[in-house]
Amino acid sequence: MKQLKNNETIEVLGASFNGVKDMIEHARKRIPKDGVYVGEDSLHYPCFDSEDYIYENRYFTNLVFAKSLDELDKKLGILKQMSQLSCNYNKLTVELHPMAYWQGDTHHDVLLTEMEEE
Fold it and tell me: Is 93 exposed, middle or buried (0-12, 13-18, 19+ CB in 10 A)?
C-alpha cells in the first residue's frame, strides 16, 4: 500500500488528481479525469446528537478507478456488496486495484493499493 498526503497530487491509471477531494468530486459528478472514472462508497462519520448532524461533514471513503463506465459500475457493484475489511468502513483490497481509502479528516493520509511486480 502507498500512503499519500490527502492534499498532494495522486496519480492513478495515468490521471493526476489534486488530492483526494478532487477524486471524490469526480466520483460524485461521474465525469472522467484524463480518461479515468472514479467510483465512491462512503459512510458518514457517527453522529450522536442533533448538533453532530448539523456540523459533521466527514466521511470514511472507499474509491475505485476504471477506464470505462462499464468497468466502473462492475467495480462499484462489488465494492458496495463487500463488508468492511477493518474498522472505519475500510474496504481497501487489491482485488479492486486500483483502489483508495481515506478516513475523511485533514490529518488522515490516503491509502492506495499497489500491485506487486512480477
Answer: middle
